[in-house]
Write a structure and sequence with these properties.
alpha/beta, Rossmann fold, UDP-galactose 4-epimerase, domain 1, globular, binds NADP nicotinamide-adenine-dinucleotide phosphate, binds guanosine-5'-diphosphate-alpha-D-mannose
């Protein structure tokens, strides 16, 4: 039986990945931080077979101890501060968590292996945000990076470091350059979930307006449950590598809004207002993946279309609001 350690276990991708790995017969450990992480009861209920180990990406010693305890065959580094606007407000924290956190995990793996080449395989959650002000469209593995946020810069550091550990220490280390992926488990601060949650509340009479920023930005949105299969597949290859993961289709924020309101039979123009607070200091205008390498080498393809994703998220939030009207929080960040 293989053992995997997943950082970022309380996040969207961590839960889908843990469920997937457990379904494949893995023993899965999730790294949790804090003395009383508020998401733990939810996590226990969602994935009863998951094991937990303490650790923080800001604390090298805790990562060394976690790797020593778990002795994983595979490490998936999904932990990060992942909300782009926060990166302008707390750039040093983002640099340390999202950037240097990668170094700390890689060092913990290297130290655990003594002098030899680390046997443990490593996955880094790289991001299409690294393409930023994209030099070409669609973006592929060798498209030059032009990050537009401290978050994108931190991800680029982690990405190059992963390549460097592969080349310096012979590690099986891979980066998934993942384009935006969403689900009913997406944090409410991200635009898709903010829209789906608001549409549900508007439909059920609990909210009247939805304030958004730039409606023209375009993203390549896929379903998170599909994307975690690609992460695992990367670590099963003979050698580590970098892979772009996305659908190959871009849609604007406005298109997402239109589809979400359509799903409940409402006209978005009567509810959506734009608000300067949600405009970013520097925007990423258009991200669209060229995922052909992943299809060719990993046999990976997305399974959920844009319309299916919107419907899945809106339907899930309608259910949430009906079941527990107070549980949803629409972020004002
Ligand atoms: P998410 O829902 O925001 O989850 C982030 C995770 O990081 C949470 O489990 C959080 O744990 C953990 N974390 C934050 N600070 C930490 C620290 N100091 N030490 C340990 N863990 C810490 O993110 P996601 O959407 O699942 O994304 C997973 C990864 O993929 C992230 O690295 C993200 O940057 C990257 N990515 C995401 C997308 C996307 O579209 N979703 C696309 C490309 C790349 P707490 O519960 O303790 O806060
Ligand atoms: N969050 C948010 N809230 N975004 C808004 C809003 C709003 O009210 N209005 C418009 N947008 C626009 C943003 O300006 C951006 O262009 C787009 O919606 C998507 O924003 P997010 O959903 O916050 O995601 P992101 O693209 O910035 O970042 C996500 O994807 C990256 C991969 O490309 C995150 O998951 C990152 O962690 C990930 O690396």
């Amino acid at each position: 039986m293989k053992t995997a350690l997943v950082t970022g276990i309380t996040g969207q991708d961590g839960t889908y990945l843990a469920e997937y790995l457990i379904s494949l017969g893995y023993q899965v450990y999730g790294l949790v931080r804090g003395q009383n992480n508020p998401k733990l009861p939810w996590l226990h209920e969602l994935i009863p077979d998951l094991r937990l180990v303490e650790g923080d990406l800001l604390d090298q010693g805790s990562l060394i101890a976690a790797i020593a305890k778990v002795a994983p065959d595979e490490v998936y580094n999904l932990g990060s501060i992942s909300f782009v606007p926060l990166a302008w407000k707390q750039p040093e924290l983002v640099a340390s968590t999202t950037g240097l956190g990668v170094l700390r995990v890689l060092e913990a793996i290297r130290i655990a292996s003594g002098n030899g080449s680390p046997r443990c395989r490593f996955y880094q959650a790289s991001s299409s945000e690294m393409f930023g002000k994209a030099r070409e469209t669609p973006q592929k593995e060798d498209t030059p990076f032009y990050p537009r946020s401290p978050y994108g810069v931190a991800k680029a550091y982690g990405h190059y470091l992963t390549i460097n550990y592969r080349e310096s220490y012979g590690m099986h280390a891979s980066s998934g350059i993942l384009f935006n992926h969403e689900s009913p488990r997406r944090g409410p601060e991200f635009v898709t979930r903010k829209i789906s949650a608001s549409v549900a509340r508007i439909k059920l009479g609990q909210q009247s307006k939805l304030a958004l920023g730039n409606l023209d930005a375009q993203r390549d949105w896929g379903f998170a449950g599909d994307y975690v299969r690609a992460m695992h597949q990367m670590l099963q290859q003979p050698e580590g590598g970098d892979y772009v993961i996305g659908t190959g289709e871009a849609h604007s924020v406005q298109e997402f809004v239109e589809a979400a309101f359509e799903q409940v039979g409402l006209d978005w123009r009567e509810h959506v207002v734009t608000d300067e607070r949600f405009i970013r200091p520097a925007e990423v205008d258009l991200l669209r993946a060229d995922p052909r390498k992943a299809e060719r080498e990993l046999g990976w393809k997305p399974g959920v279309s844009f319309r299916e994703l919107v419907a899945m998220m809106v339907d899930a939030d309608l259910h949430n609001v009906r079941e527990n009207p107070d549980a949803l929080f629409v972020s004002t960040l």
